[in-house]
Structure formats: structure tokens, C-alpha cells
Automatic annotation (TrEMBL):
It comes from Castanea mollissima. This is Annexin. Belongs to the annexin family. Ca(2+) 3 binds at residue 298. PROSITE patterns: ANNEXIN_1 (PS00223), ANNEXIN_2 (PS51897).
Length: 316
């Protein structure tokens, strides 16, 4: 589901490439022209633009953009211009290099992409970095984080709606037992979260709530300062209510002293063509402010214009 505002008549790919070339010529870069093209093209169109640009001008469009643009605007344009799998591979690689126990980007990619999209991201990672994502995650993490993240990024979950209710009941009981005993890193708990389909996990957690009168996330708040519990709660949220997870990332990125442009750019560029409308509704409901107003208040210039175009803001 795309929320991009696409003009009624889209110029040909060669026209787009010609206009982009013009944006780089003369005195200074024409950032508005770049936004008017790339900010209003879907993933398939952007891929064609990159291919045609390389064939026509003998230069990678990403390199041309990299030379011409700067700061947050450059980062947003470059992430947006990448194919989704390439983008995920890049974000995952950056997350392994800057791993901290509160870095949830690896979990976010593993839990909010479809099985197929996660597989494509792993293939893109192979192609780009000449090693596997699993290998880098295992190398850069330790202890409980490694125990959770390696199977998460390796997962290929069943995507259908079929649910085994007997299994949901027995696994709800198992989860409650482990959490009651504070065995948060237990193999069975991690196995359930890293292998079961999202539909099955939902059924299990619904049964957990009905049977034990508490949300599992509440039971995992035993120690608010425990960063492993924090990533476990975020894992559950990403698997069951990803729009709430992304709303929170955006809220924290915008509503604090100084904007977290990294998180803001990541969520907008990765979700614009997926579920941004749902995330926007969730943001408005939670904060009583439309997301485009919050972004406009917190960002400036070309960076602001591009983000507003990507979230489907009518005037962008």
C-alpha cells in the first residue's frame, strides 16, 4: 500500500533521467527538481531510472547524488533511491558495525519484513558485503542478544493465516512459565518468537492474555532498565503490531531535545511504500498531531520537503 502522491501523468524514464542530469548542472544543485522526480516514483520506477541513468550517462545515479547532496537530505535521498532489499542490507550492516544493546534496527528489519523480503535482504547483503548477515550479526553481538538476533535474521516464517490453537494454548503456558521464572533467555521462549508465523504468535499471545490476565509485554516489564527485556518487548510489538512500534520510533525521534534524523529517515524511507498510512493514523491518534505537521515543525528545507513527499503529504 503506497502513500506516495504520484502525478497524474508520469514522464518517461528517459525524461526523468534527463531532468535529473539537469538538476546536477549549472550553478548549484536543483534539489527541488530531484524531490519532484525521485520523491514521486515507486520502487520499480526508481530502479528503472537508475538503470537508464547508468546506461545513458555512464555513471551510477547514486554516485552522482552522493557528489551533489549533503547531510540529512543526502542520506534520505540515497536510502530512498536504493531498492528495498539493498536498503535493508545497508541498514543492517550499519547496525552491526554500530551495535549497542539498545540498537533495535536488526530486530526491526527481521520482524517487520515479510519472509520473502527478509530473504531478499539477506541475498543483497551477500552480494554487497561478500559475507552473510547471520555471520556479521553473530560476530558483532554477544550473549542473550546473539541468542535472539541470529535466529531472528535467519528466519523464514510461514506467512499464512492458519493457526494451531492447541499449540497456541500449550506455548502460551510455556511462555508464562518461563517469564514467571525470569528465564527470559530460555531456548523455548526464543524459539517461539523466532520461528512461529505472525498469525500463530498472535494466537498464542491472545491466549496468554486470556489465560493469565496480563499482556505478555507487561510481564516483560519486570526490569525497565534491562535492555534485553526491552528488545524482547520490541520484538513482540514488531511481530504483532508493527504500526505501534514505528509510531513510537517516530515519536521518540521527533519529540525530544534535538531530532533523531537517523531514525526519522529510516522509518520514512523504509515504510513509505508499505504501511505509512497506518503509521500516520497511529501517530495522529497517539499524539493528537498529524505526522506531517510534526515533521514540518521539526525539520527544515529540502530534507523536510522530501520527507513530506514520501509520507504522502498533498502539498509536498
Amino acid at each position: 500500500m503506497s502513500t506516495l502522491i504520484v502525478p497524474a501523468t508520469i514522464p518517461s524514464v528517459s525524461e526523468d533521467c534527463e531532468q535529473l542530469r539537469k538538476a546536477f548542472e549549472g550553478w548549484g544543485t536543483n534539489e527541488k527538481l530531484i524531490i519532484s522526480i525521485l520523491g514521486h516514483r515507486n520502487a520499480a520506477q526508481r530502479k528503472l531510472i537508475r538503470q537508464t541513468y547508468a546506461e545513458t550517462y555512464g555513471e551510477d545515479l547514486l554516485k552522482a547524488l552522493d557528489k551533489e547532496l549533503t547531510h540529512d537530505f543526502e542520506r534520505a535521498v540515497l536510502l530512498w533511491a536504493l531498492e528495498p532489499a539493498e536498503r535493508d542490507a545497508l541498514l543492517a550492516n550499519e547496525a552491526t558495525k554500530r551495535w549497542t544493546s539498545s540498537n533495535q534496527v536488526l530486530m526491526e528489519i527481521a520482524c517487520t519484513r515479510s519472509s520473502h523480503d527478509l530473504l531478499l535482504a539477506r541475498q543483497a547483503y551477500h552480494a554487497r558485503y561478500k559475507k552473510s548477515l547471520e555471520e556479521d550479526v553473530a560476530y558483532h553481538t554477544t550473549g542473550d542478544f546473539r541468542k535472539l538476533l541470529v535466529p531472528l535474521v535467519s528466519a523464514y516464517r510461514y506467512e499464512g493465516d492458519e493457526v494451531n490453537m492447541t499449540l497456541a494454548k500449550s506455548e502460551a503456558k510455556l511462555l508464562h512459565e518461563k517469564i514467571s521464572n525470569k528465564a527470559y533467555n530460555d531456548e523455548d521462549l526464543i524459539r517461539i518468537l523466532t520461528t512461529r508465523s505472525k498469525a500463530q504468535i498472535n494466537a498464542t499471545l491472545n491466549h496468554y492474555k486470556n489465560e493469565f490476565k496480563n499482556d505478555i509485554e507487561k510481564d516483560l516489564e519486570a526490569d525497565p532498565k534491562d535492555e534485553f527485556l526491552s528488545i524482547l518487548r520490541a520484538t513482540i510489538k514488531c511481530l504483532t503490531r508493527s504500526e505501534e512500534y514505528f509510531e513510537k520510533v517516530l515519536r521518540l525521534a521527533i519529540n525530544k531535545q534535538g531530532t533523531d534524523e537517523g531514525a526519522l529517515t529510516r522509518v520514512v524511507t523504509t515504510r513509505a511504500e508499505i504501511d505509512m498510512k497506518i503509521i500516520k493514523d497511529e501517530y495522529h491518534k497517539r499524539n493528537s498531531v498529524p505526522l506531517d505537521h510534526a515533521i514540518a515543525k521539526d525539520t527544515r528545507g529540502d530534507y523536510e520537503d522530501l520527507l513530506l513527499a514520501l509520507i504522502g503529504h498533498g502539498d509536498a
